[in-house]
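Person: At home tonight, work slowly through the protein below, taking as long as you need, and write a paragraph about the fold.
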Amino acid sequence: MVFQYNPLMHHIETNEDGELIFTTTRLNLLQPRIRYNIHDVVGVATFAEMTERAHSTGVELQNLVSSIDQKSVPLPFLWVYGRKDFTISLMGANIYPEDLEQCLYDEPELAAMTNSFCLGLIETADGSERPCFSFEVRG
């Protein structure tokens, strides 16, 4: 996901591992998050940096602006690759690799035939997301 964020409402930074560290700076929260790390692997760029990156690939940000907005807002950008620990999140629920591993080991026949597995999300034809579990099985 790539999106713009309002730096007056969220202070966003990354740590040395490329993980998102954010602080919510809105005053109307009872329990603001301060330097909160959910271990998402992310990148951040200023509007000028993103404009330059897009231009280097032949894309002009101004051409992506909807006709309603008429012009782009020079807010910084944030992009999220996913969880560092390969956890997937779907509708607020986290599915951890350990959860799937436990399901496999609870069924000895499945564990015996599985070399490895991978978690992911896929988009269905109607645009909704579903979990996808891929397995490498012994031949």
